[in-house]
Amino acid sequence: MKRKIYKNMLIKKEQVEKVQNSDECVVSEYNFCKSNLSLALVNIVGRYPKKGSSVNTECDQIFYCLSGSGLVGLGKEEFKICWGDAIYIDKNINYYLEGNLELVAVNNPAWKLEQYNVINR
Question: Which of 40, 41, 114, 120 has its CA 20 to 30 A from that of 11?
Answer without folding.
Answer: 114
